[in-house]
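Incident log, structure service

09:12 report received: a user says their structure output differs between two submissions of the same chain.
09:20 pulled the input from the user's history:
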Amino acid sequence: MKNKILISLSVIALGISGIVIGCSGGGSSSSSSSSDGFLGAIDPKIIGTDLAYCDAASVFSTDAGDFNASQTDKKNVSNDKMNPNAQNRMMRLATVISPVASDGNTSVETKEAKVHPILLSYAEQVIGDYELGDGSADIGDPTHVDDIFVSLSRDDGQTWKKYEVGKTADKSSIHVQWDGTSIAYPGHSVKADMGVQGNNILVAWQDKYCPSGNPLDLNTSLETYPDNDFFQVNGSQGYIDYEGIVAPNGKTVYQVPFSCVWTARGVFNEETTEIDWMQAQQLTTGRRDAAKIWITPSPVGFALAWQEDPEGLRSGKGAGPGVGWSGATTNHGGEIWYSYLKMDDFNLSVVDDSDTKPKPLVNFAYPVRITDNENCKVGDTKLYCQSLCDTYGSVEVPNAQGVVTNRCMTGDVDMLTDTQVVMDGDTGASRPAMTILKTDGDINGSSEYVVILGYEETKGLAETDPGTGTQDQGTIDTNISVEGKSVYFERFLFDNPLSVAVSSGNIINQKYEDQNTSEMIYENARRLVIVSQVDTCDPSDYTFGFLYKQGVETQGGSSDMFLRMNTGFDASTLTPAVNVSTIDAVLDENGTVVDYSWTPTHLSANSYDNVDENTFSPRGFMRGNDIYIGYEYTPNYDKAEQGNEPNNFWVHRKLGGATMMDGWQVPLNISAIAGRKISTLDPRFVPTPKGNSASGLESDLSNPNVLFITYGTFDMESGEELNLYFSRSTDKGATWETQLNPAYNEVNAILAGIHEVEEKEVQTIPTPDGKRIYNAWLQESELNSTAADIFTGLDSWFGLVDYNISK
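09:34 re-ran on a clean worker, output below:
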């Protein structure tokens, strides 16, 4: 393992004291943890050697396979024809209550006497004329503005109660030029994530309303960390000027403010069966453009990860399955950040007469830079840069014009070049993924909570102008050894991110022999997914894994899915990578795929052995040492791009086996769409959750043999999204039932032909017994403002499918 950064002790004397939050942010900051004044002095030591033992399920449900699915009980959650929705996120609380309708009626009937409350978070347009969706894109528009909402169901999805948790749309923190006119840009809120732990609920999103340049109320005149704003969180909100380019939705875009991170906390009150919300709270400043927020809950608290781009959201080229503008493509200097809130501080609040909601007493901890991508030079105003130069010195780096700048160095080794890291700002990180693992014990016998934080990062090895932060990521886009991305991870204790701050990361993808030069190179790896345990009680099981796509082309080109599992917690215990997606297509005399063949030797295939096939949308989980992998796959990337070959959702399973090369079953095409018109997208691959026989509900008894997939379809010619489908396996994925549509009912079947309803972005939660499935999705059609038609517009929908029909 590499040596980490030792920050100058004169700069960072870790005397932590309470911090009073200013009027726009909240209360004191969550306390930070470190030892002996070191910031990343050595690798964080994980004492535990395996996952903590769990309580094995003692009562199981085994009859799921005896029943067929009922018709979907479908409800419109948002049910507001004047306000379109976006970005659903569904959760189900562990607590059980007696059913209550949204109007307080307690005589509502449900299948079981008790129910789990269900939550659905979403963005809803509250300003502007009605506008249909842009998918995953985040395209700035000051005339169409969203706030963040959460709807609660206490009767198994029959009725829903709506809460507005982020209320910034009518506020502004910055003026920009829009088509030659100075405007006060409104507080547009997008891309909410949600996490629950017990009855505690956290929602986080990115917002254009960033009123405070010091939301943690740091006293920057002090010498102690983090009061001195060591990582330069504070500052004025910035913006990016798109200079009138036309976005994929046809709009012309001008100056768009950077986003900052906001959070809102709620607690489900079991006595009132309501959610008690606190005031929303600003965490970052918009000095850089925040995106891709990720929440991970745990018994010790909530963790937050996100990316920040110093130049603003890049439009992207839409070379993959999307249309760009999602944050997947970054400028130079894009960083991954981390913060946390201890569970002991979650519910602490104070009364604030200016709002009907109480104010959080403790904000999230001071954000920490995990990556090392920003430009640091001698004399830099960023305190952490000064410390790096003081500790490790600097090196002269010329730019493309021959101008030399002294750049700071770190104590890390760049794994791409095997040289000491120079902070030249020539790389950018994006797409954080995170989980929290509980170990089997630290030195005192207590369990540790270990954060596994993954991300992807540009290589920064092409012939570019280092550190300029321009939108040009390189002049060479065919040499895979210097272009594209790699995938990385860090691991650290939940409340000690300082141990990995400003790190070069642990590279996950391995070197392969270049097919042209025979040199060992890193190919283009991205779309990292963490493969986590659903439940396990065996200390010999894998702790976690990484699934990612990799290939010898950039910008959405051909790729395979590669998998590396871990038997411990750091890079030294990762298993060698296996190729889980490559297969051989069997063609007829016309070149049409009629069958596929696979043998275990395909696990060792190079990505360039078959440059026709392509994969995306990695999905994965494991139960014990059984590993379940899913992905979108096409045997011919060029034909799929031309609309002549569909993508399908495939599942590949490893059932036991002594090594990573053992136990793999033949990959299965689950969606099995043929022809040249319809293709699949946006799949979900979902296991039954861990059971809980203590709840008293039959549906909470465990059936680990049941799996679900859900996915969308689209018209390859028009790009229009069509229908959603789900399928179930009751035998660990060996066989699958007929695909069904979770949005289907007789009324919709009649109206769909009239209104051409698009169903998209499905979210899926099964019950532990595998006999019920909850789906939430966005449903969109052209708005008919003159008719009271529930199938028009863009709304959040919910559908409950009950497996209660005997076979």
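09:41 both user submissions now match this output. Likely a transient worker issue. Closing.
09:42 reviewer note: Residues 1-41, 464-477, 746-755 have pLDDT under 50 and may be disordered. The helical segments are 343-346, 383-392, 637-641, 746-755.
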